[in-house]
Amino acid sequence: MASAKEIADKAERDDIRSRWLLSTPALLIVFLAALGPLLIVVVYSFLTPGNYGDVKWQFSTNAWVSVLLERDVFDDTLSLAGAHLSIFWRSVSLSAMTTILTLIFGFPTAYFIATRPEHRRDIWLFLITIPFWTNLLIRTFAMQEVLRNDGIVNWVLQALGITDHPVQLMYTNFAVLAGMVYVFLPLMVLPLYASMEKIDFRLVEAGYDLYATRLQVLRRIIIPLVTPGIVAGSILVFIPSLGAYVTPRVLGGGTNLMIGNLIELQFGQGRNWPLGAALSIALMAIVMVALLFYVRNTSRSDGSHG
User: Fold this and answer.
1) Half-sphere exposure for 273 (CA within 13 Å, toward CB)
2) Parallel, antiparallel, or unpaired for β 48-49 and 78-80?
3) Concatenated DSSP letters for 34-48?
4) What is the rounded end-to-end Cα distance, in angstroms, of the chain?
5) Going by C-beta distance under 8 Å and a sequence separation of 6 or more, which residues neighbour residue 111?
């Protein structure tokens, strides 16, 4: 007869086998829906562009070279691809500024909601989430109506006598930035509110009782307690804004492209699928670096607080 240990080992193996069998459908879906397309993009990035927008099954690293470098048409010398670097820098800088501005506007908004009576907070959260009910393209066109030459902003500036003629706001980096701040602001407010509603505000009152100023209470009590919300909100804003396509396309016109627009051009008018695939992987790499940066800083902060 089998010993108790052998019976236990067999039961454990059967349990592990059954878990793998039960998780197989989910693993297949993840592979087919996520890893499969990603693998195709990686393979395409090492192929040769076709004549009509497809690919030739010939190994080539030209797409990866073209991400940051460009080849002279006369002597084949390589130099930095100024256009690509400019677009990369614009994408990263506008995404970082969008994150900072949404934090500046979202922090007091979340604090205001968290300090309201509990039965009224749902109303304010409802107002914050209303924009999500509208399609992104419609919201972007609404922002266009605000920023155009005969829009609300220019009307107010001229009515106040600040300017005597319309200011060109559309098709500029400012327009793209304003549009992305408007679109992604709720993604910053909600994580901040989730962290702030857990704060024991008796700590804030204790800070005031100990003669701390408002700035000291904010810096030494509130911000350390809501750091997870700040990190989560920054990630939720920075990553989608880095790959934004609709907002730069509508508000930036054809002269203020971001990485997402550049990728679309390569798969469309450029007919260079390998370069578009390489740019997509490069965008993913930037996102991964940003995630690692946030995670590392969060870990250090948690360690220092601990």
Assistant:
1) 17
2) unpaired
3) IIHHHHHHHHHTTSE
4) 53
5) 192, 196, 222
Q: How many CB atoms lie within 10 A of CB 136?
A: 15
Quote the CA–CA distance of 129 and 190 in Å, as a whole number: 9
Structure tokens that stand for 61 in this block: 């690293």
Q: How far apart are CA 104 and CA 225, in angstroms?
A: 17
Q: Please, which residues bridge with residue 69 across strands?
A: 80
E strands, the chain, are 48-49, 55-56, 69-71, 78-80
- 63 closest CA partner among 264, 251, 281, 221: 281
Length of the chain: 306
Q: In which residue are the tokens 């360690």 written?
A: 303
3-state secondary structure (DSSP) of residue 164: coil
Residue 180 contacts residue 244 (beta carbons within 8 Å): yes
Number of CB atoms found within 10 A of residue 170's CB: 20
**Residuewise pLDDT in 10s, the chain (306 residues):** 557 777 777 788 888 888 888 888 888 888 888 788 889 999 999 999 988 878 889 999 989 988 888 877 777 788 888 888 899 999 999 999 999 999 999 999 999 999 888 888 889 989 888 888 888 888 898 898 899 888 899 999 898 888 888 888 899 999 999 999 999 999 999 999 999 988 888 888 898 888 888 888 888 888 888 988 998 898 899 989 998 999 999 998 878 889 999 999 999 888 899 999 999 998 888 888 877 877 776 666 555 544
In whole angstroms, give the CA distance from residue 233 to residue 245: 20
244-to-38, 94, 260, 280 alpha-carbon distances in Å: 19, 10, 6, 12
Rounded Cα distance, 170 and 251, in Å: 6
- Burial (CB count <10 Å: 0-12, 13-18, 19+), residue 10: exposed
Q: Contacts for 79-84 with beta carbons within 8 Å, 24 or more apart?
A: 84/262, 84/279
Q: Please state the pTM of the whole predicted model.
A: 0.83
